[in-house]
Every structure is written in structure tokens, then in C-alpha cells.
Amino acid sequence: MKMVLTLLSLVTFIQLNAAPRDARECVVRNGLPNFYFKCNNKKTVKVAYFGGSITAQPGWRVQSLDLFRKQFPQTVFEEIYAPIGGTDSLLGAFRLKRDVTAHKPDLVFVEFAANDGGRGSQTNSIEGIVRNLWNALPECDICFVYTVFGEEPQKALENGKTTEVVAAYEKVADHYGIPSIHMGVEAARLAKEGKLIWKSAAGSMQFVAGKELNELAGMRVDAKGRIPFAPDGVHPYLDTGHKLYTQAIARSLPKIEAVGDKQSSHTVLPVPLGKFVGDVDFFDVGMVVKPGQWEKLEDLEKHFPGREDLRLFVPSVWRGTPGASMSFRFSGCSLMIYVAAGPGTGMMEVRIDGNSKKYRVFDSWSGVWRLRPFLLLKNHDPEIPVSVTITALGDMLDKRDYMARINRERQFDANPAAFAPNDLYLCGILIEEGRLLP
To answer: What is the set of domains in the chain, with CATH numbers?
Structure first.
């Protein structure tokens, strides 16, 4: 059996290396004809926003939906909210079916490039999103949108170039005729001219998800006449950086609409660029846990206040103290699990057909609760059943030290009791091209 045990954030299946391209705010390609046909002819149109924390903020997402409502006042636009902070396109490909496709969107904005790493792209996951979405909903349209993440991408964009990640996305977009909007091009121009500052002098990224990111600049320009883009250089202020993102969309949509609204169906897809993530099914942990060892949390808002990802994207959360374990069998190509990472979490052990590995659930970002995925197995022969056991461990961690790595030790010091438990919170099982077995 070929087995790979690795943490999601370190995983890429197949990288499509692509040299940086000249940055363009909008590439129209085949447009969004089905979407605009529905805007002109349907009473209700559904728009899905699928991405990470920048999409989760009530910024460009909310503002762009308002653009549609103003342009087509006779149409009711329903939002499909599907962003999870701090996650990439690999998780996107795995959760597409449950979080997006099941709601039958007419248009899907895909925003994962910022979280897909500094080199190459998880091309198989992006291609998997495209192909699986169109296989299920051939008349749904897709638009890639890009944000700006970190100093290196900002400098590249100021010099008129994309990152390798965005260039790889553009290869996929070229192949499938998907329009794309780089929302950061204008911000980069302003920064190069000295009219915009990406982050405040003391700014640093302290959160990857949650309402803590939703800040207002409270000013149009700083003392030097520069627009303040974001407090941390990544997550824009709602009243400055996000407005620049929305303005990029507003400039791009008329160009995309000009392609027309002649309906088409993506029933015949081009030859894939490479191996891509296949169909993934989500299974409730409650199907396999032993009730005596695990407690089902009934009031998720009470346990995880304000954490939408832990309320909206999982059917249940099960807590186990050190020593609690669960076992199951499955067939499939890949296995991923959801856990909740937060102050009261620690380590887990995963045993797959006798091969075991420890995983640290708690990390530097665990001062607040969030949904965290772990890819446990990939590239497996789906004809060979797999046995899995997951155990909560009581290994002691220096949690204050992990918090100090992002200058958050004061959060630990304010409530050390919250960090004392080393429990495991299981939230979901995701299997590619397979199922749970008896």
C-alpha cells in the first residue's frame, strides 16, 4: 500500500509550475454567459463565495453582491456563504460537494490563491473544483478572483507581475475559459506611487479566521496622505482595502458581461491538465464514534462563540479526552478529517493499517477556535480497504511558547486555564472516491 501521512498545510498533490505573468486586472475569456442570462431571465440567482478568510470578511463579498442587486433590481440574489479562514484549494476541492454544489449556485467566485503557498499551485485541487462543479452543475459559471498576500506578492504586483501561484491559476483559467479578476492590481499601483500603505508600521498577522479580522481603518488617508490598506498587510480594512477590491470587480464586470448572455453547458470538458481531486463525500463523525468515550457538543455557539466555520460547515462536533479513540474502515483514494483547533486542544495519534503518526492539533493560531483539516492518506488504491484509528493524546505542550511565536503570549497569560485541557474535537470525515465500510 502506498501511504502518505502529512499535514494539510504542507501538502501539494501535483504542482503546475508556472512563470509569473504580466498582471492584468481582468481577463474576460469566455465570460459568464449563463449567469447573465439568469440575471436577465430568472427571479432568483444564487452566488457562491468560496475561499478563505479574506472572502469571509464582510468586505468585497458583501459589496460585490450589492453591485449585482443594484444592476439587476428585478432579480433576487441569494448568497451561498462558503469561505473558511486559513484554508487552501485542497480543502476547497474536498468540501466543494457539501458546502457549494449541494446549494446549486449559478455563479461561484473562487478565492484560494492567497492560501495556496508561495510556489506553484495545487493545480489538481483547482482543476478538481472546476471539473467536479461542472460535472454536477454544467450551467453554473465560475470566476477566479485573486487577492494580495504578503510582502513578496505585493512587491511583484507593484512591478506588474503575478506570483507563480496566480500564474498557475491562470493556466487553469485559460484551459477552461474561466474569467479572472485580480483585485489587487489597482492597490499595487497606488502603493508604487506612494499613495497606499499595505500595513501599519506595527501591524502583524495575529488571526487567520474569525471576526477579529473585521476592522475599519476609520480614515481615508494617514498623516502622509496614504490609503491604509490593511492592519496586517493581508486582511483589508473593510472601508479601504476591501473597497479597492470591490472597485476592481466593478470595473471588470462590464467587460465580462460584454461577452454576452447566450446560454451554454459545460457538459463536455477538455482533457484535464493532470491528475485532479475526484468526487469527495463527507461523513458525520457520529457514524463511527463510541458514545461512551466521546461527548457530542449540543450548543456549538456556546462552545465556539462567533466561529461560523464550526457551526456552518460541520454537522456535529465530538469531544474526547486523552485516551478516547475511534476506529473505522473505508475504501477510497484519499482521507481527510476535520478537527477543531483551539486553546483546549493538544495532540492526536493516527494509526492506518498498523502505521502510526502523531499530529499536533494545537498551533500558534489556536488562541481562538477554528476548523482545521488534516490530510491523512492520499494516492491510495481504492480497491484495498483501509483501517483507521484516531486517538486523543495527553502529551504536554508548551502552549505559551507556541503563542509567543506570533506575539500572542498575553492571550495565554490572561486565561491559562483555557489552555490546560488537551482534548480532541472531531468534526468530520472526508473520503475521495470512496465510502465508509461496515
So the answer is: 9-257 (3.40.50.1110), 280-437 (2.60.120.260)
